[in-house]
Every structure is written in structure tokens, then in C-alpha cells.
Amino acid sequence: MDDADRRLLIAVQKDASVSQAELADLAGVSASQVSRRLSKLKDEKVLRGVVGVVEPKLAGLTCSAIIRVRLRDHAAANVKAFRDLVERMNEVTLCVMTTGETDYLMKVVARDLPHFQEIVQSKLLRCAAIAHMESSIILEHLKDTTELPLDDD
């Protein structure tokens, strides 16, 4: 990946709806190179996709929470059961394995607090692989971005 690819990725992260001519200007390459470079970055899995970012509250998802999960043990069957559950849950927007006292950290979105409670009770608490779960309702997003720091600054 060269500097032009980085400039192209920075521009696409900020606004993927800009025209190829605008991307070419921002990246310092020709418009024909933009298409080839984006295709190559997609093929190499550097660029996973180009999506629209939806404002959760305006889409009716007014409750977000961070959930810390500790599994009963790390037997393959427990790990698989938890991972399968997470894959099936559309409400989970982020799930990462972590170090420390908890095994996983999840971000969940819901219509409201009763919906969040329903998600916890009907899905998460029914998973036998989970030994302990702790949740924190998000009161305010101080920073919520998908942009990666690709520039040298």
C-alpha cells in the first residue's frame, strides 16, 4: 500500500459517496486509477466494504449498552456456543475477545430499555456457556467513529 492508497482510504473513510473524480483529486491519482486501486484494496481485504452509517437514535434504536461477558470455561464447546449466539444476534454491533477479568466485550443496541432487558433475558441469560455478565447502559457517545488513523499526523 503506497501513499496514494492511504490518501484514497482516508477520503473514502470520511465520505464514500464522493465521486471518483473527487477521490482522484483527494488521492492525487487519475480517476481511472481510483477504480483499480479501490478494487485492489477490496481484493486484498484492506477495504472490507463501503457502507452507509446509520444514526441509531434516529432509526429508533435509543438504547445502547456495553456488556462484559465471562464464560464458564474456555472449552471449545462453550466458545463455539457463545460465538454462534453472537453471530445470530443482530443487536450486537461489536464483540471482541479481551484480556483481563472478562472474556468478551460487546456493544448491543435496542429500541429502548425494555427491549434491552428482553435481549438480555431471552438470549444472553439462556446461553449456558456464559458464567457471568455485567452491563452498562451508554449515556452518551463521546466518540463513535469507524475512521482509522491512516495519516502520519
Structure commentary:
With about 150 residues, the chain is an alpha+beta fold. About 40% of the residues lie in helices and about 20% in strands. The protein is built from 5 helices and 4 strands; from the N terminus they run αααβαββαβ. The chain has helices at about 5-15, 20-25, 30-45, 75-90, 115-125, and strands spanning about 65-70, 90-95, 105-110, 130-135. A 4-stranded antiparallel beta sheet has the order 2-3-1-4. α1 (about 5-15) crosses α2 (about 20-25) and α2 crosses α3. It starts with a helix and ends in a 16-residue tail after the last strand. The model has no long low-confidence stretch (mean pLDDT about 95).
Layout of SSEs?
Elements: H1 3-14, H2 20-27, H3 31-43, E1 63-71, H4 76-88, E2 92-97, E3 104-110, H5 113-124, E4 130-137
Antiparallel strand pairs: 1-3, 1-4, 2-3
